[in-house]
Amino acid sequence: MPVRIIDHVYAQYLLTRLRDKNTGSLDFRKGLVRLGRIIGYELVKTFPFRYVEVETPLGRAVGVDIIGLDKVVIVQILRAAMPLVEGLVKAFPNARLGVVAARRKEEEGYVDVEVFYSKMPSIGVEDTVIVADPMLATGTTMSKAIEEVYKTGTLGRLVVVSVIATPVGISRVLSRWPDTEIYTVAIDPELNDKAFIVPGLGDAGDRAFAT
Ligand SMILES: O=P(O)(O)OC[C@H]1O[C@H](OP(=O)(O)OP(=O)(O)O)[C@H](O)[C@@H]1O
Ligand SMILES: O=c1cc[nH]c(=O)[nH]1
Ligand SMILES: [Mg+2]
Q: What is the CATH number for 128?
């Protein structure tokens, strides 16, 4: 399944707090950080592992080594992904980080997205690339960010991490890059005439940064 909903009750609780219009920006940012951590740990579960022996101060124990944790790239789409990525890096502390700065221009009936800065680490086929943005609305921003990632060359695994996605945004990404995996906490049904997700949580960037 290319789309995975994080149905952990604590993730759903955190999303509910984010949706609440009375949640202030400090708690909104904290909620995104916590969700990033939970989604990150869910993603870790999909990495292969092998059993290893370890020497404790008192003897030998059998444990696990997770394969590929040192081959992770996290790309954050400014601004709203910043707190989400702060949480994701708790699960992937050795991740190399990329940045895409994008601005959505909401017009009646359509969305245009300008990418005005992009910087990627070197990426190889052995890497898992996680592109994070809490809102996957029309999917235009995410598509432009993935284009920036592909400019670096051939990728291995590509994972989109969002908090609220829409069927339209998911289709836009998967129709172009069908092997992409999408992790999200919820899929909301609609976009309004300014391409905001309904019911959604409003403007994630504005709510996180109190603008
Ligand atoms: O799927 P789309 O229709 O492209 O919309 C999603 C994008 O819109 C918002 O960004 P915005 O341009 O408002 O920037 P911000 O994060 O700085 O608020 C959001 O943070 C996503 O990046
Ligand atoms: O609903 C939406 C859509 C795009 N960006 C947001 O922050 N919220
Ligand atoms: Mg915004």
A: 3.40.50.2020
